[in-house]
Design goal:
It is found in: Cytoplasm; Nucleus. 71% of the residues lie in helices and 0% in strands. With 625 residues, the protein is an all-alpha fold. Helix 26 packs parallel to helix 29.
Length: 625
């Protein structure tokens, strides 16, 4: 070990072994080396001979900085030396199974080589990708580097997320366009060969190849991967016993489906993929071939399939909407639509509607999953579907039996997805004591509340289209939990909240006790109420109190139910609840209820005032916090 290696090792030491003064001296020593003309050759030579990973990293980092800052001005011989050294490291140092370079050094080699690529491709190094693909035949280590280099190309050159100067942006666009013109066909062929070659003997490597490919699909010619050769391979790998490979294949198919294009070509692409028939079979559950690897659990695989299903359904729906709107918009502004164009649009619409009909059972099955990661990706599609129903209802009032069944299944999915998690500490009892646990619980609550807002928005939109069907669903949900000792608090809370949400914008007739079904449900909640086993759960209690206020107009018309409503506010379910957020909220809601009922509460004033005394006393004797 010479002074150079000692200095590098000292600068990378963070365990307190060396004094700050010595670390400063070591940093100054290495920084001085960077300023010398010999630095470039030193980096190239020392990387190959040193046994210290820290020194190798320093050499790569320094070489990368030199390339970024002054590569264009280097002599041709130095540029050739850098190119040759990097390709040697890719094929030699990264392809030694007995002593492989650690991943962080492999990534740095890839990043440094891509920094050279940005200046040399295609003018001075037109065969770069061909050379790299040819080298991949040397072994798995080079295949791994092939993937890392392509990922670095995507991240450092192609990605729009990285801020660049005008010159850097011009260079990046030049490389990207040149890849499209000269190299991507060969690269796509390599993806196909490597994924097929390693699917059995090294499935992790095959998955790495497909993961790399998925990053390119959004911007390359879709025909390079969506063809009669590649698609059957991807579809077969979706059944791989290796979870990582299966997920990578699903991700690639998802990216193909999500590719941005015009509506008619998109529908033609989806039809040619023959993926709709495959996805339709998922109504009985996502594929569950036995996994041979233990790192990827079945739920993670199901989440990937759910994302593919959601993307497929959403893209078909969006294409259908664009096809229909295109013809309608042209007609609306007075432009003539040729018979051929109208016929083509009609065929496309019919095909899209048929594909959606095929997919719907699988979509509904996934949406009703108890796993949020599986169900929630379908939420945007459900919103688009309901918006389409709204448009259809304007033209043809009433729902056919098939649509009614679909709507009910969506409502069932909303009820499942809107349930709170079961952790009593986060939702039912005292908040966690430790700050970290309290922060985690708060973050989880916020995520659940955001999810429920989206779900209830969908619920209300459905109610605007087919109120009787939604009313019947809520009535069944409420009837199955009210008064039942064995009802879970999550089921009760959701049923009560669905009733609360249904009251927003409900038809006037529904609020009338003599004929409105909604009024009957509100009265049932007030008079029967949840079983005492769950009635005092803080979230159930809050839901009941909020509902009482929302349906105060029903109580005005049915004074006999008022005592039961007042009791919910005045006993341990409301102001007397041990949870401060419930008792405080109960006070506020009670004032709103009394204000709404006005003269209707007069007969109950003596009892009401007596019941308020202990709560007022507690308020007077409790210090402000």
């Amino acid at each position: 070990m010479d002074d150079f290696e000692k200095a590098v090792l000292i600068t990378f030491s963070f365990d307190g072994t060396y004094s700050p003064q010595l670390k400063e001296q070591a940093a100054a020593f290495t920084n001085n080396i960077k300023q010398t003309p010999e630095c470039l050759r030193l980096c190239v030579e020392r990387f190959s001979v040193t046994s210290y990973a820290e020194v190798k990293f320093w050499c790569l980092q320094t070489l990368h900085e030199l390339i970024r800052s002054s590569y264009a001005g280097l002599p041709a011989a130095d540029k050739a030396m850098i190119r040759g050294a990097l390709m040697t490291w890719v094929q030699r140092d990264c392809n030694t199974p007995a002593a492989p370079l650690p991943p962080f050094l492999r990534n740095k080699v890839a990043q440094t080589l891509v920094a050279v690529l940005q200046y040399e491709y295609p003018t001075n190094w037109p065969t770069f990708f061909h050379d790299l693909i040819s080298a991949a035949a040397q072994g798995e280590g080079v295949v791994d580097m092939f993937c890392r280099i392509l990922l670095s190309v995507d991240e450092d050159i192609v990605s729009l997320d990285i801020p660049r100067s005008q010159d850097e942006s011009r260079l990046s666009m030049h490389v990207k366009d040149s890849m499209r013109e000269h190299s991507l066909g060969e690269v796509a062929g390599a993806w196909y060969r490597l994924a097929g070659a390693y699917r059995d003997k090294a499935p992790e490597l095959a998955a790495q190849v497909l993961t790399t490919m998925s990053r390119y699909i959004p911007w390359i010619d879709i025909g390079l991967v969506a063809n009669d050769k590649f698609l059957p391979l991807l579809l077969s790998l979706m059944d791989s016993p290796h979870g990582g490979l299966r997920m990578a294949a699903v991700d690639c198919v998802t990216e193909v489906v999500a590719k941005r294009m015009e509506a008619l070509p998109k529908l033609n692409l989806i039809q040619s993929m023959k993926i709709v028939g495959t996805a339709a079979r998922w109504s009985a559950g996502f594929p569950s071939a036995p996994l041979t690897d233990h790192d990827d659990d079945e739920e993670a695989v199901a989440v990937r399939f759910a994302r593919l299903l959601a993307t497929l359904a959403t893209e078909i729906m969006d294409s259908l909407k664009r096809v229909e709107n295109g013809v309608i918009s042209l007609s609306a502004v007075g432009f003539p639509v040729s018979e051929e164009a109208a016929s083509e649009a009609a065929r496309a619409s019919e095909a899209a509607a048929g594909m959606l009909s095929q997919l719907f059972p699988a979509v509904l099955a996934a949406f009703k999953s108890s796993c949020d990661e599986v169900a929630l990706p379908l939420l945007p599609f459900m919103g688009a579907y309901v918006a389409r129903l709204k448009g259809l209802a304007k033209r043809n009032p009433g729902l056919d039996p098939e649509t009614r069944a679909q709507v009910r299944a969506i409502l069932e999915g909303i009820a499942v997805a809107a349930k709170f998690p079961a952790q009593p500490d986060s939702y039912g009892g005292a908040p966690p004591a430790l700050p970290a646990q309290l922060a985690a619980a708060q973050e989880e609550r916020e995520a659940v509340e955001e999810k429920r807002r989206d779900l209830f928005t969908l619920f209300r939109n459905i109610a605007k289209i087919c109120f009787p069907e939604v009313l019947g669903f809520v009535g069944a949900a409420l009837g199955s939990v009210l008064g039942r000792a064995d009802a879970g608090w999550q089921d009760v809370e959701v049923a009560v909240n669905l009733l609360y949400e249904l009251g927003e914008g409900a038809p006037e007739e529904a609020m009338k006790p003599e004929g409105g079904g909604l009024a009957a449900l509100a009265l049932a909640l007030v008079q029967r109420g949840p079983h005492p086993n769950v009635a005092r759960h803080r979230l159930v209690a809050l839901a009941v109190l909020e509902s009482c206020v929302r349906y105060s107009r029903v109580l005005q018309q049915q004074p006999a139910a008022i005592p039961a409503a007042l009791a919910a506010f005045l006993d341990a379910r409301g102001m007397g609840h041990p949870a401060e957020d419930v008792s405080t909220r109960a006070c506020y809601l009670f004032s709103r209820l009394v204000k709404a009922l006005r003269q209707n509460v007069r007969p109950y004033l003596p009892d009401m005032l007596a019941s308020l005394q202990p709560h007022l006393q507690r308020v007077l004797t409790t210090p402000l916090t």
